[in-house]
Amino acid sequence: MSLLNCNRCGKLIIQKKQPYCDSCLRYYDHSYRQIRDCLHTRPHLTAYDVHRETGVPLSVVLELIRSS
Ligand SMILES: [Zn+2]
Fold first, then answer.
1. Residue 33: inside a domain, yes or no?
2. How far is the CA of 42 from the centre of ligand 1 (A)?
3. Is 53 part of any domain?
4. For residue 37, what are the domain limits?
5. Is the pLDDT of residue 12 over 90?
6. Positive or negative, the Cα torsion across 51, 60, 46, 50?
7. Cα of 53 to ligand 1 centre, how many Å?
8. Is 44 domain-assigned?
């Protein structure tokens, strides 16, 4: 078992699949759903448009698009 800091908030967590704590995982999950729903209705939006539509920070939008 190894410990690491959450990639988003820095909280100390036990290492698991993703490098995030539970509350950040919930945040990413929620943001991911918002982005997915937004792109579902308007698939031609850019990352910046999605950020403006959903209010999800641009860095999070880009990170989620990269990792999906
Ligand atoms: Zn966290």
1. yes
2. 30
3. yes
4. 21-67
5. yes
6. negative
7. 24
8. yes
Reply yes or no on whether the pLDDT at 3 is more than 80. Answer: yes
Cα(2) to ligand 1 centroid in Å equals: 16
More confident residue, 33 or 2: 33
- Average pLDDT over every residue of 2-24: 91
Instruction: Give 17 Cα–ligand 1 centroid separation in angstroms.
Output: 14
- Region at 10 (left for phi over 0; alpha for psi -120 to 50; beta for the rest): left
Domain assignment present for 16 = no
- Could you tell me the sign of the dihedral formed by the alpha carbons of 55, 38, 59, 20, in that order? positive
Q: How many domains does the chain have?
A: 1
Could you report the per-residue pLDDT of 18-55, keeping only the tens digit for each? 889 999 999 999 999 999 999 999 999 999 999 999 99
